[in-house]
Amino acid sequence: ETGVTQSPTHLIKTRGQQVTLRCSSQSGHNTVSWYQQALGQGPQFIFQYYREEENGRGNFPPRFSGLQFPNYSSELNVNALELDDSALYLCASSLGFSPLHFGNGTRLTVT
Amino acid sequence: DQQVKQNSPSLSVQEGRISILNCDYTNSMFDYFLWYKKYPAEGPTFLISISSIKDKNEDGRFTVFLNKSAKHLSLHIVPSQPGDSAVYFCAAGAQGGSEKLVFGKGTKLTVNP
Asked: Which residues of A touch B98 (CB under 8 A)?
């Protein structure tokens, strides 16, 4: 059973740039959720995708967008990066009401 | 406005003793609760969950207690082991929704040999 994998593991971007983070869901899981974890905080829900459609969104601006592909993998895109976007971005997959299974995250630094 | 609060940023216990991690929530719509454990440089790992229809759930050394009237849950680890040293996150959700989980800020547990 392959777990949730995320790429890249680390990324450094400049303010104003755009970034794409990628996630492969755990085998058999059809739902992908993205969370942002700032330093010293718990993970905060960004949005969730199910059957390639956004299925719930947290309190994040529209410059945070996503995609889910037919193989259930997903991308998180962030436009016009701000310094406060520096965080660990976690992808999690699930099936039905099963607990979320998280990847190891992508550490994004915006300078 | 934090809907899920873990008021203890850190906890230190001796190996073999009980670790008790606490969590409070404010949203009455939450009806299931989870604990996740996180090691450095890894993603959170699911530990144990409880539905609001129960007041206790046990899995090996880990037991979660839920007090709905007090909007409080706790995780008991008995006996504590050095490998349990990690950050523990409490999370809450409302089943039937979008599976959005609301996390606390975490408690760093250190189990000393």
From this structure: 48, 55-56
Judge: domain B4-112, CATH 2.60.40.10: yes
> Is residue A94 within 8 angstroms of chain B, CB to CB?
yes
Residues of chain A with Cβ-Cβ distance to B43 below 8 Å are 4, 90, 92, 102-105
Q: What is the pLDDT along chain A (111 residues), one digit of tens a residue?
A: 679 999 999 999 999 999 999 999 998 889 999 999 999 999 999 999 998 999 889 999 999 999 999 999 999 999 999 999 999 999 999 987 788 999 999 999 999
Give the residue extent of every domain in chain B. 4-112
Beta-bridge mates of residue B50: B33
Burial of residue A70 (number of CB atoms within 10 Å: 0-12, 13-18, 19+): exposed
The answer to whether B100 contacts chain A (CB < 8 Å) is yes
- Report residue B67 as tokens: 């007090």
